[in-house]
Structure formats: C-alpha cells, structure tokens
Amino acid sequence: MTFERLVVVFCALLVAFNMQCMSVYAQEVNAADRITVVVDGDRSKQLHLPLYEWYPKDKEAIGMLLAIHGLTLHGNTYAVIGKAFAAEGFYACAPDMRGFGRCYTDDKQAFAVGGVSKQSVDYDGSYADIVALAQSLKRDHPKLPLFVMGESLGSSMCVKLAAEHPELVSGLLMSGPTVKINPLMVLHPDNILAAGWALFFHPRFRMSTTSFVKNLVSNDADIVDELLRDPLCRKGLTIAELLKTKRFVSRTLPNAAKIREELPVLVVQGSEDRCMVPRAVTKLVCNIPSSNQTIRWLHAHGHLLFETRFLRPATLDSIDIWVRANSPARENEIADIKTEILQLGGKEPRH
User: Fold this and answer.
1) Tens digits of residue pLDDT in 70-125
2) Per-residue model confidence as pLDDT tens digits over 164-200
3) Helix axes 153-164, 123-140, angle to 10 degrees
4) Which of 331, 327, 304, 332 is nearest to 90 (CA)?
5) Ordered DSSP codes for 238-283
6) Alpha helices, DSSP H only, in the chain?
7) 123: Cβ–Cβ under 8 A, 6 or more apart, which residues?
C-alpha cells in the first residue's frame, strides 16, 4: 500500500472515529436521555393521587418543583416544563386535582379514598391532597428547596399553600394568576350562548368550554388545538363547578397578604391575556409582602404559557433566570456581596 493510500485510509478512520465520538456525545447531551419519567409511582399510590413525575436519571436532584394545573387541565400538561426541570437536575411532579384529568375519568375509583370519589370538583379536597404531597416531598428530601408553580387557577392553589405552609415552600412561580376575571369570560357572545344552552337545555347544566378555549385561553392556534384534542382536558363544566371556582379564586388576594416577607416570587404575565385582567396582577404583587418579587411581562403572549408543548423561548428564559437567581449558590454570592459592601463602608438599610 502506497503512502498516499495510507494517508487516505488514516483520514477516513479519523473521520469515522470523530463522527462516532460526536454521535456518542450527542446522545450524552440529549436532554431526553438525562431524565426518568414516572406515572403513578409509589408516591401516587401512597396519596391516592394521579401523579406525573420527572427527575434526573443518573444524579441526585438539586431541588424540587411541584406544579399545579389550571382550570379544565391536568398534571401532564406540565410535561415539557417538568422534563426541562428534570434535565437541569430538579425533581418535578404534577398531580391532577379532584374533578380534573384522571380524577375526573376515574370510573373504576382507583383514586378514591374510603369510598369517597375524586371525580367531582372539590378545591378544599384538592388543597388537602397538595399539602400532603408537598409534606411527602419535604419529608423525603428535607434539605432540598421546593419551588411551587401554578398557572391560572393553579396559581390560587399555590398562593394558599405558600400562605398557610411557609415551611414547605422555598419559592413561588406563577403564570396568569387568577386575580380578576376578564369580563369577556362572561360577556363573550359564544360564552353567553354556551351558558344559555347549559341553563335551559342541558340536563345537568353543563356548559361547554370549547368557546372559552378557542376565544380566550390562548392567542396561539397550536395551543388551542392542543387543548381541544387532549382527551384529559375537561370539555364541559357545570354551572355549580364554575361558581365553586369563582369562590375559590376570590380568596387569592387575602391569601397573598399572608405570604412570608422573604419568599422569592416570580410572576409571568402575557400582554394579550384574555382570561384575566393583566393590570390586576399589579394588585396581586402589591398584596404580597415579599420584597423579593420578579414580574415578567411578555409581549404578544396569551394566557396559557407554562402548560403546553408549544413553549416559547421567552417563557423558559424567564423561569431559567429566576431559578438561577434564587438558587442556594446565588444566595451565598449575594451574602458575600453584602459583606463586602459593609466592609467598604456601606450601611444596612434602616427599613
């Protein structure tokens, strides 16, 4: 074999080797390969609760995320965000609330407790389930921070948890928090028609949520289509269930006033939210005593931001920056900076 031929063979082998290494490296850095997904594992069985879990495959978690879904939705609508957190080293989980998701479709009563079904909307019962879940997480991992995430209706549940159980919550992330409902949710012609049909023609006064999803939940056609096609999303709610929801949401502002002063809070709000009144978010943050608040207003974004496969970069960027800023390492860095300021002649603020 000539020298030139040897060079050609060597180069071919080198290219093949590099391509193989690149392929192995690509597999190693693939986010999906770094996580484990569990549906209704041991914790679910202990709590009699439909539960989706995502966590790092080959390393210990550095923190925990408990995500609570919005009206008509279910825990697995957080699948992409849950996996994203897991890929970055967090344990993440999301339950179905009573009357939603697989609780609602539980004809075999797999999640019933003491013969009591979870098929009906029950916010007090759902809150008790979520408290038990958060306590279970902290009991198993007492040293890990627990961040609580909620979107729309789920944010009201998160605020209540942070207010009544400050020992459990290390940080609060909210999207489209339910403070004041946009009048269009009631006055939109399609919703008026659906409500009229429910009142006078449906035997159980069940109102279709199709017009609500199409006209108000998102300004993104892909997200709307995703929700309408999801078999676990509620396609109808009774008027009694809607009134229950209204009563539960009305407690959000009083609960917000009870949140501890130092709790880190992130609010992400779309400028084109047609379910809630974006301006009312300022009233919410004013009610929260915490001085550690971040508000991200996202231009041309709708109501639903977290619970979708069609996540926008600005949404994830908002979460990523906030989580990094409130990590234990960042807290130590801030403490060091504060010490240096005092060493250089700075003074502690009086108020």
Assistant:
1) 999 999 999 999 999 999 999 999 999 999 999 999 999 999 999 899 999 999 99
2) 999 999 999 999 998 866 555 544 455 445 445 444 4
3) 60
4) 327
5) EHHHHHHHHHHHTTHHHHHTTS-TT--EEEEEETT-SSB-TTHHHH
6) 3-29, 42-47, 79-87, 101-104, 123-140, 153-164, 184-187, 189-200, 210-212, 221-229, 239-249, 252-256, 280-287, 313-325, 328-343
7) 97, 98, 157, 244, 245, 248
With beta carbons less than 8 A apart as the criterion, state whether 110 and 341 touch. Answer: no
- Terminal-residue alpha carbon distance, the chain: 84
Structure tokens at 282: 């300022």
DSSP 3-state assignment of 146?
A: strand
Query: At which residue do the structure tokens 């004809």 appear?
Result: 107
Q: Is the dihedral of CA 5, 11, 13, 16 positive or negative?
A: negative
| Ramachandran quadrant class, 176 (left: phi over 0; alpha: psi -120 to 50; beta: rest) | left
